[in-house]
From TrEMBL:
One of its GO terms (molecular function) is transmembrane transporter activity. It comes from Sphingobacterium siyangense. It is a multi-pass membrane protein. This is Major facilitator superfamily (MFS) profile domain-containing protein. PROSITE patterns: MFS. Residues 117-291 form the Major facilitator superfamily (MFS) profile domain. The lineage of its organism: Bacteria, Pseudomonadati, Bacteroidota, Sphingobacteriia, Sphingobacteriales. Keywords: Membrane, Transmembrane, Transmembrane helix.
Length: 291
């Protein structure tokens, strides 16, 4: 099982990088923001996926057959939509148009990704994904231990966060078009930081849930903006930059909850949550200086 899960994780990671790289190239080709909508549908898919699998099992379908059903749907999706993906030649044309590079130099030089512009985007992605991982792993425990919520309802905080993030991402492309990436990232980081502080400090559950909603609204479009910028770094192919940014981001989602657990063990879970709020302020500061 461990070997199969490892292979599954590698496959999901490869698909994730390819989807984001392809999405950036489609965005560049059509000349308008679409990354937030793509990430929004990803969030919606996550919500409906968990509900759908639970529904199949609730209807009496054995878990293995439910999983096979979903696998078959994925295969059908691939067969029906494969030809609509950009061809390799079209991808190269878009890359050359929006990120002109010398192909011969790319093949000879190593560590093309080792640039400040790539690493700083990856670092900020690390922080944004860390917050998502923290909400997934720690929000229920926080509500139970610090807000007195009964165990069967402790998932309500993450649900509020996830729904708010999905809704905001579906509106994110309009925001980026009307405003700009600087307003979206800095304003979103400040709003997310405020949301966490409300979650920590609020004496009422209703206000705490509003804090989770603000966190989801603020953090929703930060990562899509970073991926979009990663696909437009001058002189660097998106197929080089995006894997690095994705890897650093998902490292935050993986290692972040463990880091917060260490902070909670030595201090408290409240301090751990306040650390996330501080990190969002760091994102806002870095992005302001960088831009």
């Amino acid at each position: 099982m461990a070997c199969v899960l490892f292979i599954f994780g590698c496959s999901i990671g490869g698909i994730d990088v390819a989807m984001n790289a392809h999405g950036v190239q489609v965005q560049n080709a059509i000349g308008k923001p679409i990354m937030s909508s793509l990430h929004g549908l990803f969030s919606v898919g996550g919500l409906f996926g968990s509900i759908g699998l639970g529904f199949l099992i609730k209807m009496g379908l054995v878990p293995i057959y439910a999983a096979v059903t979903i696998a078959i749907l994925l295969i059908l999706l691939l067969i029906l939509q494969y030809r609509k993906l950009l061809s390799y030649q079209k991808e190269k044309e878009i890359i050359v148009q929006f990120s002109p590079i010398d192909e011969t130099q790319v093949s000879k030089k190593g560590f093309q990704w080792f640039r400040w512009s790539v690493l700083i985007l990856g670092l900020m992605c690390f922080i944004a994904f860390l917050s998502e991982g923290a909400m997934l792993d720690w929000s229920a425990i926080f509500l139970r231990d610090h807000k007195g919520v009964s165990p069967e309802f402790t998932g309500i905080g993450y649900a509020a966060f996830s729904v708010a993030m999905a809704v905001m991402r579906l509106q994110g492309d309009r925001l980026v078009s009307k405003l700009n990436s600087k307003v979206v990232v800095i304003g979103g980081s400040l709003l997310a930081s405020l949301g966490i502080l409300i979650v920590v400090c609020s004496p009422w559950l209703s206000l705490t849930l509003i804090g989770f909603v603000l966190l989801g609204l603020g953090a929703a479009n930060i990562v899509p903006v970073f991926f979009s910028e990663g696909g437009r770094i001058e002189g660097l192919s998106p197929t080089v930059a995006i894997p690095v940014i994705s890897t650093m981001g998902y490292a935050g989602q993986l290692a972040g909850p463990a880091l917060l657990g260490a902070i909670a063990q030595h201090f408290s879970l409240i301090i751990a949550f306040e650390t996330i709020a501080l990190l969002f302020l760091v994102v806002a500061l870095i992005y302001k200086i960088r831009k």
